From TrEMBL:
SUPFAM superfamilies documented for this protein: GlcG-like
Originating organism: Amycolatopsis speibonae
The name this protein goes by in its record: Heme-binding protein
UniProt keywords, alphabetically: Signal
Region forming the signal peptide: 1-24
Amino acid sequence: MNAKLPRTRLVLGMTAGLATVALATGLGAAQAQDRKPQPPAQPAIVQTSVLGVDAATRAAQAALDAAEKEGQRVTVAVLDRSGDVRVLLKGDGAGPQTEESAKRKAFTAVSFGQATSALNKNAQGTGPTVRDIPGTLFLAGGVPVAANGGPIAGIGVGGAPSGDLDEKFAAAGLRAIGELR
């Protein structure tokens, strides 16, 4: 019987040890369930998409060509997501006001991610509106360039006798660079 005593103690000791581990694991799991999930840490560096200079130049030239084909003297501006000019083409005979108009239309389109003609209705009213934001211009003639689900650039055209024509030419520039991903 003495030979069975150490074996019994061994079995009891192992059982107690397993029970302790199981209890600790169960408590740890229960505590983990009580904790609220933490949001993922924000990255220190964020990368963004930028329209390359070749594509920006192609878009601007296509918009200018479309305007010249219809006898219109315009300026075309392509701005990046930060509002910086990537390309500016001033057509022969374009008026001095066309540069600022094209840049502001491109800025508005990329800032809001919509064509400026669609934004015009939000700029109406007697009180404060989006038209009060510095650098914006809510006349037709600006279109956004989108990639990866968001605006990365804006194409603005200024100088045609109507915003509809300016926007038509800006859309020709957008078509020249195709669908971006």
